[in-house]
Design brief:
The protein has a single domain (5-295), classed as Ribonuclease Z/Hydroxyacylglutathione hydrolase-like (Metallo-beta-lactamase, Chain A), CATH 3.60.15. Strand 12 and strand 13 (199-203) form a beta hairpin. The strands form three sheets. The protein has a seven-stranded mixed β-sheet. A seven-stranded mixed β-sheet has the order 8-9-12-13-14-15-16. The N and C termini lie close together (10 Å). The relative contact order is 0.16. Helix 7 crosses helix 8 (268-278). The longest helix is centred in the C-terminal third of the chain and has 13 residues, at 241-253. It has eight helices and 17 strands. The protein is an alpha/beta fold and 296 residues long.
């Protein structure tokens, strides 16, 4: 059997390697090199940061074949405009995500909406408004069900039933059918990479809840064990230590202690808790400039 090597690189994140001039960011973007394709998982929050870190890593924007969005929040989507502007005459770029990714969002409370605008200088906290010129260079593929990117890379699809507690945000609304309504974050999806050793889960924010995402992965691949969980888990939302303890216990007893590579919205409190619970051999930070390789 001929094995394929898949490489995952962190391009945009709040945690950075100190040995190079990366710029840290509240956003997230990973590069997946698989089957002679270069796939971005999200595009970060600022194009200037995305392009700076890509340049340091020697990644040509024209070499990107596809972008998959974990969900539609600004810190995962706003880098797309600069990416497209740097591609010149490159072929049409595929964008894959839930239908709710490609719309606008805003803060629910009017006062907080104003303070958010003053802080970030923009009103829309969802997908950016792109020019017609850029839109003509995009092929947007909207998915709800699990979607096979390659024979070994699949999306979880929409997770709309939560047996376990999700990591949601209740302060945002989303524009659907011309009206702003409560945002249930149904567009949150993760990636499942099937390796020779088992499953690797790659999360953007994990708003669906890391345990619900694990359950979905096992629904899709019931005979495969989850070996690694990588990315933002939004455990920062779990301020009660009992919630963190429950997640850790389930990862240990139900999923046999997968390795945890945390980044983005996991939160230092959650990282410290999980490190104390599992140990440094299992829990690590996944920083800008870090790479992981998998035999598939």
């Amino acid at each position: 059997m001929i094995l394929m090597e898949v490489k995952l690189t962190n391009i945009v994140d709040k945690y950075v390697r100190p040995d190079r001039e990366f710029i840290s960011s509240d956003g997230l973007c990973y590069l997946i090199e698989i089957d002679n394709k270069r796939i971005l998982f999200d595009t970060g929050d600022q194009g200037i940061i995305l392009l700076n870190n890509m340049q340091i890593l020697g990644i040509n924007p024209k070499s990107i074949d596809m972008v998959i969005f974990s969900h539609g929040h600004w810190d995962h989507t706003f880098g797309i405009e600069a990416l497209m502007q740097s591609r010149d005459d490159a072929p049409t770029l595929k964008l894959i995500g839930h239908p709710n990714v490609f719309t606008r969002r805003r803060v629910k409370n009017p006062f907080r909406r104003l303070t958010t605008y003053l802080k970030y200088r923009w009103y829309n906290l969802g997908f950016p408004t792109l020019s017609q010129e850029i839109m003509e260079k995009l092929e947007i593929i909207k998915i709800i069900e699990p979607y096979q990117i390659t024979p070994i890379l699949t999306t979880t699809g929409e997770i709309n039933e939560w047996k376990e507690k999700p990591c949601k945000i209740d302060s945002l609304t989303i524009e659907l059918e011309g009206k702003f309504v409560h945002d249930d974050l149904l567009d949150d999806l993760s990636l499942i990479l099937k390796t020779k050793d088992g499953l690797v889960l790659i999360l953007g924010c994990g708003h669906a809840g890391v345990l619900n995402i694990c359950a979905r992965a096992k629904e899709i691949y019931p005979d495969k064990e989850i070996k690694k969980i990588i990315g933002g888990t939004h455990l920062v939302a779990f301020t009660d230590e009992e919630d963190l303890k429950y997640v850790a216990n389930q990862l240990e007893t139900k999923y046999n202690k997968p390795q945890l590579y945390f980044s983005h919205c996991t939160g230092l409190k959650a990282i410290d808790f999980m490190t104390a619970y599992f140990g440094k051999e299992i829990v690590k930070k996944f920083r800008v400039g870090d790479t992981l390789t998998f035999e598939c």
